[in-house]
Amino acid sequence: MSSSADAERITDKELTTLRLPATRFGRSMAVRSFWDLLVEPADGVLEPAARRRARFLSSLLATVGPVAWLLAFSYDLWLEGDMSQRLLLVHIATALGLALAYSLSRTERYRGAVVLIAVCAVAGSWIYGLAEADPARLLSGSAFALSGILLCAVFFPLRITAGVAVVNLLAMLGTLLANSAMDAGQLLWSLTIHGVISAMIVLISDLVKRISRT
Prior knowledge:
214 residues, 8 helices, 85% helix, 0% strand
């Protein structure tokens, strides 16, 4: 009886040991399946390189996009304690733009999602600047405009990326000039920072693409 009981206990232990990895594997597969459901491109995206780019974009929009929006919204709503109606409309429009860009990123028109992100990043940053009188908050929000240039550098040729960078600088100049609280030193410093970073993004992306062709 004792040996039979020992054998039964050993058997139960072995079954438990086998069951734990199987349970973890099942959970891991469930998480992976859910993630694939969120970011996997549509069947119409056939080229492997295009599928990788589309998946990268949808992954970015499914993670970084919502987090960045929530942080910006929370900062204006709770930390600062006030939010104007114009600023609220900017946040809502940005959220809708990101949602639409995510939908496009799952399709054959994933490059359109990049254009939409660039528009949301550049236009949203400077419309935010027009709605916000504080120069410090204006300059901190302007950093989001650079994300549009960076994504264009990944998905589009050099001339398009450079064009977006120039549009961003012009929009920045117009917004800063429209802000009466901004002095000449802050204006020059802001344009210099954005100009240098934009030039670095354009030149480095061009260099990486040239190296990849060799």
